[in-house]
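Appendix B, Record 12. Input sequence as logged:
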Amino acid sequence: MQLRIDGRNVTPRAGESLLEMIKRLGLESDYLSERPLVAKIAGEVFTLNYIPLREKDVSPERSSIRRAMAASGGEVRLLRYGDEAGKEAYIRTAQFVIFLALRRLWPDAVARMTCTLGASVFIEVTQEEKFSVATLKEEVARLIAEDIPLHRRRVPLQQAVDRFTREGQEDKARLLSWRTADYFDEYAYGDFADYFYGEMVPSTGYLTVWDIVPADGGFVFVYPDDADPEKCAALPAMPNFFSVFSEGERWCQLMECATVADLNDLTRSGRIRELIRVNEALHEKRYSQVADMVCQRGAKAVMLAGPSSSGKTTSANRLATQLRVHGKKPILMSLDDYYIDRDKILPGPDGKVDLEHINTIDTDLFREHMGRILTGEEVELPTFNFKTGKREWNGHKMKLHKDSVIIVEGLHGLNPVMLPDNVDKNLIFRLYVSPLLPLNLDNHNRIPTSYLRLLRRIVRDYETRNSSVQRTLSMWDSVRAGERRWIFPFQEHADVIFNSSTLYELAVLKKHIFPLLTAVQPEDECYDEVRSIVKILNYVVEADVDDEIPPTSLVREFIGGNSFYR
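Logged structural output:
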């Protein structure tokens, strides 16, 4: 057997791990930015503790590894912290160590991952009066210094359920009761076992950059900085975001739907229909409240922004409806019409055109137009032709009247450079829309906000653009990079953050997305991303309740049947 690891040929020795070969090739590094964390073989990600050539191997779980090696022809690509899968493996390992430390120090404590705050995550700790962040940090540091090897093991499913039940981890036991396979893969050390739905780095000693910061009700675990992994990321001040997420969690408790197991119970009992009705009523109430605030301020323009697949278009239309209830005459505008001509956009250092860069928008023209409109002038607005890639002037004119309110939807809506000079800022209301899903798999595994957005985008791209899963996933990293640069830094500037998630939609989206995911083959580059999506959806019971979802629902923007597009 011959392997190529990052372009270097190497012949494996019997019983030798990928990590040992990496060291033999001189590819190891003391710097986190350069250090290999996991390996990608064909479309799958594997731990560096994987042994390609064994003297004896009869383990059934190794079939996927054999398949990946055969598909790749022995090509192995090493992933580092700058790669999304490498970063995720690093964070998973840190979480394992944190929960191991908590179990050792305070066995009766209940720790629950809640929301992500920039490059950090808040972990709530309850049922332990003596909890100390300083003591926790000391224990985590000690476990890292031990450089404990981390290996995944396969155990009978019922054995795992019984153990979690004995340990008082009913959240995990309930989740696993919905698993269809008769086995469970977990990481363990001593009498502690846990699982985080993906590969980890080879050992705890890899965790060289981290911090744990006290917070009300628990602590914040801080990741390495994306731009400079040799240091911790700055802990952002996000009070508005945290407040909205906390409100979502209270709503979960009220609806008895805090975990996927809860959602499954509601689906199987038929009560998911009530959940849909109440969730949609809540959204309508929130849109009404935003309209109240816009009118009370006397704002003449609403700048509406949010990341991909947040439901911005539906939100703009539903807000417009609520403004009409107030006797207003809303006018919808899109920042997309202010794109500069495609042939005038210069490529970046990588030779690719970044369509999410602020420089793709004619900010000077938009600022000028908004300033003139808000001072009562009539202005001719452009229209961007996406087929030709050019801006057009079709005689579309706008002038504000006494009861008019402009709703401007666009990626860069909250960026300060979009605000016109010499205009009363109270005339502009800033609205940020994002699906801040508070639903957890279990206490130790949250469902990232980006996960829900990705599901929405895959379904929408296929339904409206006939775009494959592979194509959508190939663009996702670029989309996320643009969001981190151009959207997230400005979300706290919003007057209101609107949580566009619904507690029921994972069960609804599963029906629409599963046939698309099963079409992806192991040799596809995106196969591991698809596996990660499927791992979560495998625990979700599909709900055939599209008939209950109203045509104005935000979810309809993705599954089809939205009345705003008729």
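The first strand starts at residue 3 and ends at 5.
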